[in-house]
Amino acid sequence: MQMILIAGQAGVGKTTLAHLIAKEVFDGGQIPVLLSFAGSLKAEAARKGYTKEEFPDKYREYCQSIGASKRVEDEDYWVKVLDKSVQENIRKETEDMENSSKFWERVIIIDDCRYLNELGYSTLYNAVTLFLSTGNRVLEKTEWREHESELLAQRLEGGDDPLVDAFTDIVYNDGPLGDLQKVVKANAPFWAGKEVPCDAEGLCTCVACKAARDGTQPILADIIESLADILFLSELKEELENEVEEEDETEDEETQDSDT
Questions:
Q1: Which residues contact 82 (CB under 8 A, 6 or more apart)?
Q2: Domains assigned to the chain
Q3: Whole-structure pTM over 0.85, yes or no?
Q4: Which of 69, 87, 122, 231 could staple 5 via S-S, CB 3.0–4.6 A?
Q5: What is the CA radius of gyration of the chain?
C-alpha cells in the first residue's frame, strides 16, 4: 500500500491534483483510493443540505465549526476516523494478494492535510507528501481564510519555513490545467511508489525510515514531536531575526542622535 498526502491552502486545487494522480495511478495498473480527513464531516454536511457547490460559505462554516469541536474533544479524532478506512483498504489489498488478483496494490490519496498531526500521521505509512503551492497566483481573500485550518498552509506558502522539508515535493499550480497535468504525469510513478523510495540506500534519517530499517512501527507522538521541533526552530529563528532587526534600528537611532 502506498499513500500520497496533499496539503495546501483552500481553493488551490488539492482535489483536482488528487484526481489527476488517481488517473495516472489507475493507468499504471494500481488501484487509486481517494480519501480525506474530513470525508465523514463532508458527508454529514451534505446530508444537512450544505453542499460545497451550492452553498460554499455555509458548507465551510459548518465543516470548520464541527471539525474544530471534535478536535477539542480529541486532537486526533479525524485522524482516527480516516485510519479506519486506511486499515480497511489494507485488508482488501491483502485479500487480493492472497487471491492472486491481477491488480491488488492500493494507492491511497488524501487531499486535505491541514494540521501538523495529519502530516505526522502520513509518516506512519512512509507516505509521499505534496505541498500544492499557489505560486504566482493570488487566492481570493475571505474571512474563513483566517480559520486555524488554513494557518499551516499559509505558513508554508512562502517556501522558506523549515517545515517545508517534511514534504516530498512542492507542486506549483499557477498556470493552465495542462501544466499541472504534465507535472503529475512526469512524477506519478515516483509518488505511487513505482520508482526509488526515499530510503533506497539506507541514508534517510526520518522517523519512518529509521523504523522501517528496525522493523518497527513509528509512534505518531514521536513523529509529531519531531515536526514540532522543526516548527520551534523556525519560530526561534524568526525571533532571533526580529531581535537583530531591533538592535540594528536602535544602533541607527543612536548614530543619528550622536550626529546631531
A1: 35, 36, 37, 39, 110, 121
A2: 2-202 (3.40.50.300)
A3: no
A4: 122
A5: 21
